[in-house]
Amino acid sequence: MRHNKAINHLGRKSGHRKALLSNMASSLILNKRIVTTTAKAKALKPYVEPLITKSKEDTTHSRRVVFSYLKDKNAVSELFRTIAPKIADRPGGYTRVLHLGFRAGDAADMSLIELVDFNEAALAATTKKEAKKGTRRSRAKKAEAPAEQPAEQAAEQPAEEAAAETPQAE
Length: 170
Hints:
The chain has 170 residues and is mainly α. The chain has a domain at 14-120: CATH 3.90.1030.10. It has helices spanning 14-31, 38-54, 60-70, 73-86, 120-131, 138-169; strands spanning 33-37, 95-102, 109-115. A three-stranded antiparallel β-sheet has the order 1-3-2. Helix 1 crosses helix 2 (38-54), helix 1 (14-31) crosses helix 4 (73-86) and helix 3 packs across helix 4. The protein is globular and about 70 Å long. The termini are far apart.
């Protein structure tokens, strides 16, 4: 039984697993999204989210703590300069895992893990939804529009019929 074994060891010894998660976290911070296996993405999420939370407070201590996990100076500076101001008001849930399907070579379940506030497509979709104002009553207006249209067509039809009758009368 697997009772109380919450962490996925990813088939690696602890040193290799820590290095893997550190490198993946650095890549995620620098690139804002990475494609990896679902198991690695799910293991990365609880690794990187506390680091992002720690970056909200820009102190020397928090920078050193984050650097001890990431071991990449560029990733630490990107996290504190770019990512932290953008996620300052978000209470958590900084990453999103999207399933992509299966890898062609070995049929591994693949996923995309990304930082939520840095997905331009999703942010654009939310602004479009806010700008669009619609209610269910608008359907009634759509139903009235075809009712008005036959009245306009009816006004056009007598003119057409009169034109059609004129040549026949001659």
